[in-house]
Amino acid sequence: QVQLVESGGRLVQAGDSLRLSCVASAGTLSSYAEAWFRQAPGKEREFVAAISWSGAITYYADSVKGRFTISRDIAKTAVYLQMESLKPEDTAVYYCAAGVVNGPATILGAKSSYAYWGQGTQVTVSS
After folding, report:
1. Rounded Cα distance, 55 and 50, in Å
2. Beta-bridge partners for 18
3. Nearest by Cα to 2 from 98, 108, 89
4. Which of 55, 63, 124, 125 is the most buried (most CB within 10 A)?
5. Residues near 2 by Cβ (< 8 Å), separated by ≥ 6?
6. Do the beta carbons of residue 43 and residue 50 sit within 8 Å?
């Protein structure tokens, strides 16, 4: 069973940058797509960014396009989320996820596409 552990969340000011990391348990994760989701208080967990198993395809929520970048290191079984120009609206618990996904890019943004989830890491952006 795949286990995912996120790290890197902390308190930052608006306009700051932050990088989140997610490392998977032993073995290869090369056949899995990976994604980041976030959940703010009182709101549903929402899609942020995803990357295909090969790393060739990335997909972003409109709210983070141009500011966030997802990447992966297959050898390290790690996925990263580089966040720039952070806004208070980005405040949330961020979760990484993994799953076997194929089809159009929009499928990468569906929670149901992912079978494995991390415990989450808190990102707080002050104004």
Report:
1. 9
2. 83
3. 98
4. 125
5. 24, 25, 29, 32, 98, 115, 116
6. no
Q: How many CB atoms within 10 Å of residue 27?
A: 8
Is 109 in a helix, a strand, or coil?
helix
Average pLDDT score over residue span 42-48: 96
Q: Cα angle vertex 53, ends 52, 58, to 5°?
A: 15
Instruction: Take residue 107 and report the two structure tokens written for it.
Output: 């499928």
List of residues 6+ apart from 85 with CB closer than 8 A: 15, 17, 67
Alpha-carbon span 122 to 117, nearest angstrom: 15
pLDDT in tens, 19-39: 999 998 855 566 789 999 999
pLDDT one-digit tens code per residue, 71-104? 998 888 899 999 999 999 999 999 999 998 877 7
